[in-house]
Write a structure and sequence with these properties.
- This protein is mainly α and about 150 residues long.
- It is about 60% helix and about 10% strand.
- Helix 2 packs antiparallel against helix 3.
- The chain is rod-shaped and about 120 Å long.
- The two termini are about 30 Å apart.
């Protein structure tokens, strides 16, 4: 994937740095009165000829610019997506670490508590968990910690 991105960037740079096939065209009249055209001035009287832009080249140039922009947009979107995925994974990892920390603390509290209480409808009369329920909860917490933390 990394190699593909490098290739796309190189192609983009090549498209950006393309130049027209011609540079400047000069026009002059030689000693015999003939009009001469060339890419280098033939004498001191040579003048640069203003060339009309070829509509096909202009259209091709516009198409290349549009393709280049689409390519750059795709690269930018991929980059943004990867950054968002990394941030999401980082956040999930932090949340999981916090959950593990809290469960480890709760497990320690369960192991150190004389009794485990469960709330009932009567706030002044909680239910005390049996030894089996206590052991089951300890194992449940420990299994989760072993599997996920």
């Amino acid at each position: 994937m990394h190699h593909q991105i490098k290739s796309v960037i190189v192609i983009s740079l090549l498209l950006i740095n393309t130049k027209p096939a011609y540079t400047e065209v000069y026009k002059w009249v030689d000693e015999n009165g003939r009009t001469i055209y060339g890419d280098k001035p033939g004498n001191d009287g040579a003048a640069i000829v203003e060339l009309k832009k070829d509509k096909v080249n202009s259209a091709d140039s516009e198409q290349r610019a549009q393709k280049r922009q689409k390519l750059l947009d795709v690269i930018d979107e991929e980059r943004k997506t990867k950054i968002a995925e990394k941030e999401k994974l980082k956040k999930q990892k932090q949340e999981q670490q916090e959950k593990c920390r809290l469960l480890a603390a709760e497990l320690e509290d369960i192991k150190n508590a004389s009794y485990l209480y469960e709330e009932t409808d009567d706030p002044y009369n909680p239910r005390i968990a049996s030894d089996e329920e206590r052991k089951s909860r300890e194992m449940e917490y420990q299994d989760y910690l072993n599997d996920n933390c």
